[in-house]
Design goal:
elongated; 8-stranded parallel β-sheet; alpha/beta; binds uridine-diphosphate-N-acetylglucosamine; 7-stranded mixed β-sheet; 34 strands; Spore Coat Polysaccharide Biosynthesis Protein SpsA, Chain A; 2 domains; single chain; UDP N-Acetylglucosamine Acyltransferase, domain 1; binds calcium ion
């Protein structure tokens, strides 16, 4: 039987270099908080329970984590070993494995973590450290090996000697530990003399003194370990992730004319043969059907659903709205909190006034309805099936236009049957 696997995510640090009132791990990447990506990895690799160590702005981080993990408070940030030690009460008398990861490495791939746990089990190690070779290893802990090439220690950049600084294999900060050995040794980690912090990395030498097996797994994927320390890192991570998302969509059969100016966040589904034109932004929680055309210069905001064969053209914004099969909304328009039935036409310049200063109100446009250019639909309002609204009309809130009728003017009045 496989040993049970749990996860500890370290997220108590201050993230000083972000210069932000918002905790670093709650900054968004492609529409989703950085920490969520790490929680996703823990869930994807089958972590039975996940613990998130919080400290700096603990309340905000705990709230964002919600029910996804158990919160462990580290009141004072005395280092990574100290942070792990805070979890000890949850692991009393437990066997099994525990992954330790940092809350600020959102690009870490679940397949690498699986491989890490796999190698750990195969080698019967007490710890297996995920390492990576970097062109520029500065700032990272270096992997020290003995003459035989065996893993001997992790040396933090600040404590490294000149020749050690040349080592390009670094500690990614992702580890797989045996629960028993980790918590037996964690209390014995001494504070670093320079920084007065307890380094988790010092546990390697403790393990070796106890005759335990320590292993490494080298990954080629440098992005896996991209820890976000500054907003420059955040932008770099965003661009890497964006490229991945777009490439996935293209391999699923979506045409993206210009990936360089197309922005698609997480949690977006787009059907086959849909074409995304340049300078388009699609937020998270959006679904687009097959054979649609979006952009150029379009923005689809969260909660938007486009059925099949829908055209949303230039300078069009759709927010929390559902557009049925074959709807055309081809030029500068705004639809918010709106449901549009199949085959309807949203003329250029159509605007739903969905916000009255207090509430967001709903608009319904029936199937095959025709909204003339430059109309304003003041919500809540319904335009009946097959109805027409003349160009330049203002349809007042609550003054629904019945099915099959033509309404014109300000305020819009029904003048005849279509
Ligand atoms: C750490 C590793 C380093 C590795 C690097 C990879 C140590 C001592 N060093 O360095 O070998 O190359 O990660 O990115 O572990 N944290 C807490 N409580 C604390 C201190 C930190 O929860 O008291 C959290 C931070 O929020 C962060 C993570 O631990 O998510 C790592 O801490 P950080 O200070 O960024 O360590 P590094 O200097 O990057
Ligand atoms: Ca870091």
């Amino acid at each position: 039987m496989k040993q049970q696997l749990k996860t500890i995510i370290l997220a108590a640090g201050k993230g000083t270099r972000f210069k932000s009132e918002v905790p670093k791990v709650l900054h968004c990447l492609a529409g989703k908080p950085v920490l969520d990506y790490v929680l996703d990895v823990a869930e994807a690799v089958g972590s039975l329970t996940t613990y998130v160590v919080v400290g700096h702005q603990a309340e905000k981080v705990s709230e964002a984590v919600g029910a996804r993990a158990t919160i462990v408070l580290q009141k004072e940030q005395l280092g990574t070993a100290h942070a792990v030690k805070m979890c000890a009460p949850y692991f009393r008398d437990e066997a099994g494995l525990v992954l330790v990861m940092c809350g600020d490495t959102p690009l870490l791939d679940q397949s690498i973590v699986r491989r890490l746990a796999g190698k750990h089990r195969r080698m019967g190690a007490a710890v297996t450290v995920l390492t990576c070779t970097l062109e520029d290893p500065s700032g990272y802990g270096r992997i020290i090996r003995d003459v035989k090439g065996d893993f001997a220690a992790i040396r933090e950049h600040k404590d490294a000697r000149m020749e050690e600084l040349n080592i390009r294999e670094i500690n990614t900060g992702v580890y797989c530990f045996n629960v028993k050995e980790l918590f037996l040794a964690i209390g014995d980690v001494k504070a670093n003399t320079k920084k007065k912090e307890y380094y988790l990395t010092d546990i390697i030498e403790l393990f070796l003194k106890r005759g335990l097996v320590v292993e490494t797994l080298l990954t080629e994927d440098w992005t896996a370990n991209l820890g976000l320390n500054t907003r420059v890192d955040l932008a770099l991570a965003e661009s890497i992730l964006r490229k991945k998302i777009l490439e996935q969509l293209m391999s699923d059969g979506v045409t993206i004319i210009d990936p360089a100016t197309t922005y698609v966040e997480n949690d977006v589904m787009i059907g086959q043969d849909t074409i995304i034109y340049p300078c388009t932004y699609i937020h998270h929680n959006v679904k687009v059907g097959k054979n649609c055309s979006v952009g150029p210069f379009a923005r689809l905001r969260p909660g938007t659903r486009l059925a099949n064969n829908v055209a949303v053209g230039n300078f069009a914004e759709v927010s929390r709205s559902v557009l049925g099969d074959g709807v055309n909304m081809k030029h500068f328009s705004f639809l918010g909190d709106t449901t549009v039935g199949r085959g309807a036409n949203i003329g250029c310049g159509t605007v739903t006034a969905n916000y009255d200063g207090k509430n967001k109100n709903k608009t319904l446009v029936g199937a095959e309805a025709f909204i003339g250019c430059d109309s304003v639909l003041i919500a809540p309002v319904r335009i009946g099936r097959g109805a027409k609204v003349g160009a330049g009309s203002v349809v007042m809130a609550g003054r629904d236009i019945p099915a099959g009728k033509l309404a014109v003017g300000i305020p819009a009045r029904v003048i005849k049957k279509v």
